[in-house]
């Protein structure tokens, strides 16, 4: 597989410890290695030229969904030429990973594409890339489409500091604990959610902070793209009971510091302490009002002593 000789991105410049198998492979096959290929999240023309070059010239192709990759290659006229296409997804990753590492060890170039978007972002490719790197093989990123970044770009929410938290747990109790684990972080939060569960997610978030600036993006880059902006409570009310259709990205803006008196804090702590430990209750209230955790924790301890 050949890459453009631009000088600054020549894969032959990859560093590997001398004497290792990976180093010997790189000496004879400078193009060998794992290539993580970002693929379109909706519009097929969002593929990059470098991605097409790599898909055309890689020795072996791997994909989260081989049918999606084959269709994408057909759209862009990239021939398969009898090359092997390996399925690599959540259900077979442990079985297929040794095979891909073996191919890398033979000096092959392997292009891995997620179902849509950038590999390793809510994608099973993480352990593959990690194990390949630990074995000394070259790992190359081919940047391109990303639902995470597309959603952040169109949201209008602060983008100087953001955190991606993946998919929420499907069970209600686990999801509520998951929401409380990050909702007080001073950053824009980005997550993926099932279109059928997005209304439930927002309703549960409203139990914590109904006024939070919230954006729901649906079908990004596709024909029926839709971006809904408002407070969490407004969007929870606007979304139909049956949920939405299509791929969904949800974003929550950073929490806003609020002016609050001690009586209000005590009242909220009293409610939280009835359901949670002192540590969890104080963290919840501190995050809700943007207060120092240490101060709220001390107040929670005082409340507990008053009840004794």
From TrEMBL:
Q: Which domain of life is it from?
A: Bacteria
Reactions this protein catalyses = cytidine(1402) in 16S rRNA + S-adenosyl-L-methionine = 2'-O-methylcytidine(1402) in 16S rRNA + S-adenosyl-L-homocysteine + H(+)
Q: Does the keyword Repeat belong to this entry?
A: no
Occurrences of domain Tetrapyrrole methylase (ranges) = 34-236
Any one GO MF term held by the record is:
rRNA (cytosine-2'-O-)-methyltransferase activity
All copies of the RsmI HTH domain together span 260-303
GO cellular component: a single term? cytoplasm
Give the UniProt keywords, A-Z. Answer: Cytoplasm, Methyltransferase, rRNA processing, S-adenosyl-L-methionine, Transferase
Q: What is its EC number?
A: 2.1.1.198
Checking Pfam families in the record gives:
RsmI_C, TP_methylase
- Enumerate the subcellular locations listed in this protein's record, separating them with semicolons: Cytoplasm
Signal sequence, start to end: none
Record's keyword annotation contains rRNA processing: yes
Sum up the protein's function in the record's words: Catalyzes the 2'-O-methylation of the ribose of cytidine 1402 (C1402) in 16S rRNA.
What HAMAP family does the record tag this protein with? 16SrRNA_methyltr_I
> What's this protein's family per the entry?
Belongs to the methyltransferase superfamily. RsmI family.
**What is this protein's record name?**
Ribosomal RNA small subunit methyltransferase I
């Amino acid at each position: 597989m050949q890459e453009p000789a631009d000088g600054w991105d020549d894969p032959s410049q990859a560093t590997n410890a001398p004497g290792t198998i990976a180093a010997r492979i790189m000496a004879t096959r400078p193009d060998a290695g794992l290539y993580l290929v970002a693929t379109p999240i909706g519009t097929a023309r969002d593929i990059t030229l470098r991605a097409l070059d790599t898909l055309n010239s890689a020795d072996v192709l791997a994909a989260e969904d081989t049918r999606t990759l084959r269709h994408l290659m057909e759209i862009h006229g990239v021939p398969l030429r009898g090359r092997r296409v390996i399925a690599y997804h959540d259900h077979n990753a442990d079985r297929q990973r040794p095979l891909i590492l073996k191919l890398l060890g033979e000096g092959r170039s392997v292009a891995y594409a997620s179902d849509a978007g950038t590999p390793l972002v809510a994608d099973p490719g993480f352990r593959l890339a990690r194990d390949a790197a630990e074995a000394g093989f070259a790992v190359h990123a081919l940047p391109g489409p990303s639902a995470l970044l597309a959603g952040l770009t169109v949201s209008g929410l602060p983008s100087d500091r953001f955190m991606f938290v993946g998919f929420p747990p499907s069970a209600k109790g686990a999801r509520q604990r998951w929401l409380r684990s990050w909702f007080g972080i001073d950053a824009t939060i980005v997550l993926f959610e099932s279109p059928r569960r997005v209304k439930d997610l927002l309703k549960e978030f409203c139990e914590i902070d109904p006024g939070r600036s919230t954006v729901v993006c649906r079908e990004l880059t596709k024909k029926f793209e839709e971006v809904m902006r408002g407070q969490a409570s407004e969007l929870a009310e606007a979304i139909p009971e049956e949920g939405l259709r299509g791929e969904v990205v949800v974003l929550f803006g950073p929490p806003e510091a609020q002016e609050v008196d001690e009586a209000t804090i005590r009242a909220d702590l009293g409610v939280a302490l009835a359901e949670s430990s002192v540590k969890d209750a104080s963290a919840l209230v501190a995050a809700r009002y943007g207060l120092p955790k240490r101060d709220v924790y001390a107040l929670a301890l005082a409340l507990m002593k008053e009840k004794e």
